Amino acid sequence: MLIGVATAANAHATLDHAVPAVGSTVASSPGKVTLHFTEALEPKFSGAEVRNASGARVDKGKSVHGNVMSISVGSLPAGSYSVTWHVLSVDTHKTQGSFGFNVGR
Ligand SMILES: [Cu+2]
Fold first, then answer.
1. How many helices (H) and strands (E) does the chain have?
2. SS3 of 19, please?
3. Which of 35, 62, 93, 100 is buried most deeply by CB count within 10 Å?
4. Separation of 93 CA from ligand 1 center, angstroms?
5. Where are any strands of DSSP class E within 1-105?
6. Which residues contact 2 (CB under 8 A, 6 or more apart)?
7. Cα(38)–Cα(46) distance, rounded to whole angstroms?
8. Could you report the per-residue pLDDT of 8-67, keeping only the tens digit for each?
9. How far is the centre of ligand 1, averaged over its atoms, from the C-alpha of 10 (Å)?
């Protein structure tokens, strides 16, 4: 689970939730990983990598709109995946983190 909670006094862009959910198992490939943050992002300086259990990247591009970043992943075979994200929020603060999810297990 996430460590730390965004408060009014500490309003950096931290991960609010993701689809697939952090640590979850989904029945089939999600097609994309969507990250919802607590603050709006600067698209140029925000990104994420998705890697399979062998460490190979499976992400195929990103789009950022407001506080939501979507990472296309195409059709993922069953397995474990890790998502490592870094963002710059509009208040100029950088944050980063990672989480995992599973497909088909
Ligand atoms: Cu901040």
1. 0, 8
2. strand
3. 35
4. 5
5. 15-19, 25-26, 31-37, 47-52, 62-65, 68-74, 79-88, 94-103
6. 14, 15, 22, 97
7. 14
8. 446 789 999 999 999 999 999 999 999 999 999 999 999 999 999 999 999 999 999 999
9. 6
